Protein: Glycosyltransferase involved in cell wall bisynthesis
Organism: Natronoarchaeum philippinense
Amino acid sequence: MHLIGYFPGSDFASDSQYGRQVHVYKFIQTALTMDEVTCEFFVGDDGGQFPGDNVRSVMTTGSFPARLYHELRRTLALVRTIRATDETTVLYTRESPHFAPIVAAELTAAKLVVESNGVPRNVRENVDSDLQYLTLTGVRRAKWRRADHVIAVSESVADYLRENHGVEAITVVENGVDTDLFDCRTEVASSPPYTICYVGGLQPWQNIELMLQTISRMDIDAELLIVGGDEDRQTYLQSIAADEGISDRVTFVGRVPHEDVPEYINRSDLCFGPFAEERPASPLKMYEYLACGREVALVNDDGLEFLDDYPGVHRFGFDDPDVLAAQIDDVLSAVATNDAGTEKVQRDRSWRAVTETVISVCQTVSTDAN
């Protein structure tokens, strides 16, 4: 099988795409070491991360028409690449607004496997015009319809695709963690004061405000360490912390290199996962916390039920901060180093295990083509 990964939106020279960047980077890095598949990748900017000729940088910027033009050129490049090999080709891409894999699959015998990492939210708010919105949503729908197989990162995402887009050929493969980088280096504290760590973006839908309100109402002595997010959101949330009277108990670290994240997780005694009523996803932070031996508290009513199967994960219903504060107090009163959680993600969720599963699905699709 010949695998072509198409990820022109992935910019490995930037620090602004944490989850998406890590996922694609580790998939490419691992796939390139596997003997059972030949592969090459189209990415936005490889950032000098991948030696050799297997990874091509194809990023383009500029106006919407200019980006469409360059996508057409990349379509031709994909077609030429597919036709240059006698092996069955599988195009592996995401549900991003890039149409080249769809057209290339139509013009050749290549199979199309599409990875879906979540459910689109606020799409119209994030584009400049109705034309861009229609193009983006249209390409997404076309990818799901044209795909020979879809890989969803959680059962909730798979359910969304089945119910709303009629996708039938679908496999759930959760996200993973770099088990060489993320490990348990320190034991959690046995008594207060405790440190709670949150790693991730600070977008409004992350509900960091609710985290801050919860911290301010807790009885147990605990501080919050927030790693990630841009300066504007940090400034806004610092004002919320001040209003709650907890400025001295909240530290905003900002963005840090990925290799430094385990250090901050290991400073903590408990970690905060998503605080979202609905979240069809497979958050990387959850696996990173567990790999570092931390218990995790998250707030979610719908979308993250599968995390209940992980040792040391405490999922609470979306509620007011007084109720959540009492629940977090209860968790901290018995918190311990989460060895069972570490063992599970090391065994099941390493990037090699995830990549091998994805490659296996692609090989099955390739075999069916023959």
Q: What stands out?
A: The chain has a mean pLDDT of 93. Residues 26 and 327 are 35 Å apart (CA to CA).
